[in-house]
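REQUEST ID: PR-0412
SUBMITTED BY: lab tech R.K.
PRIORITY: routine
TASK: structure prediction, single protein chain
INPUT:
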Amino acid sequence: MRIPKDKKYCSSLEEADQYLDSVKFVPCPHCRQTGYLIGHGFLKGYREHGHEKETRGRRFFCSNRHNRRGCGRTCPLLLSSLMLGFSIGTGLLWKFMRLVLSGKSRKASWEALNSGLPVENGYRLWQKLRKGEGRLRTYLCRKGSPPVCNADDSLARLAAHMSSAFSSSECPLSAFQEYFQTPLFI
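STATUS: complete
OUTPUT:
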């Protein structure tokens, strides 16, 4: 297995467990020391629906205990189907984006998802998408050129580019985070 450096996103908890087996050979993203990262538990957060907590990834600790030269900081390995700072996942955001771009209003699109969250969350996510679309487009151009799209809306062109770049994926937003190892929103 090839050991990825500075891995921030994985597709499943099984992949995170495999990463745990090889983490001793990975440099710490903070201090760049190799051999000091150890598993440090799971990252938990609320589910999209309900009030139960779910596992959102793993945490790693750069050990500075017992005369080790690590920095003592932690770093996460997150599931690519989730977004940092949000309880909703990339799948729900992708559906919301597709509904709005098909002609529905943002309010009607958010209510059609039955997320159980206030419509303000949908407006906030839409603003984040608008604000970060230049950055996302820059990353996508590294993977391939954009397809021909006659849409007037720049987010529609972004969605078309995402779909073509990650055509084999069910959720292009999740595939984006895993492929580029960067969050959708910063």
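NOTES: The helical segments are 13-22, 90-101, 106-112, 119-143, 154-165, 172-180.
REVIEWED BY: pending
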